[in-house]
Amino acid sequence: MAKSSPYYFHKQSLTVAVQAASLRGVFPDSQVTLTQNVSLTWIGKLQPSALSDCYKLKIKYRLKDRPQVTVLEPPLRPRADERLPHVFKGNELCLFRYKYFEWDSTMPIVDTIVPWASLWLFHYEIWRVTGIWCGSKAEHPRDDEDKKISE
Fold first, then answer.
1. Category of 128 on φ-ψ map: left (φ > 0), alpha (ψ -120 to 50) or beta
2. Quick count: other Cβ atoms within 10 Å of Cβ 100?
3. Which of 2, 41, 79, 102 fits 96 for a cystine, CB–CB 3.0-4.6 Å?
């Protein structure tokens, strides 16, 4: 019979309220909506660099699931005869490899997902001009893979 590890080795998931408060603290002009302390929707603006466009993003997060990040405005545009790189169905941004546990529910969205989204947008702007994706070239998961995050 396998022994379970002591309690102090298990990090607790951050509550949705804590995630929301952290996002609101860094982005006071953003909108945060909580649903029964199980899920949140954040809408805020990011500008990846001083020369970049300002993007309006939406992050939907349900406790212990992968945060879903989409750009509301301006709309993401593919290059001629190309698909947008590193996006899921519906142009949801692919920010990390969840099968390798690069993000989990113990990590603050404001310190991980938001900066990763900004970096994704920076790579997107370079790709729009040059046709070269400077971000990760790692394998891209299929849209139908399980989007649940392990603790």
1. alpha
2. 8
3. 102
| Residue 35 vs residues 42, 109, 122: alpha-carbon distances, Å | 12, 17, 31
| 93 within a domain of the structure (yes/no) | yes
Residue with tokens 């607790």: 12
Cβ neighbors of 107 (< 8 A, separation 6 or more) are 14
Q: What is the CATH number of the domain that holds 100?
A: 3.10.110
Closest CA to 96 of 75, 82, 115: 115
Threshold 0.70, pTM exceeds = yes
User: How many domains does the chain contain in total?
Assistant: 1
Tens of pLDDT, residues 28-87: 999 999 998 899 999 999 999 999 999 999 999 998 889 999 999 999 999 888 889 889
In terms of residue numbers, what domain contains 110? 11-130
CA distance 7 to 99: 24
- Measured between its terminal Cα atoms, the distance across the chain in Å is 22
**Encoded tokens for 126:** 């370079």
DSSP type of residue 110:
G
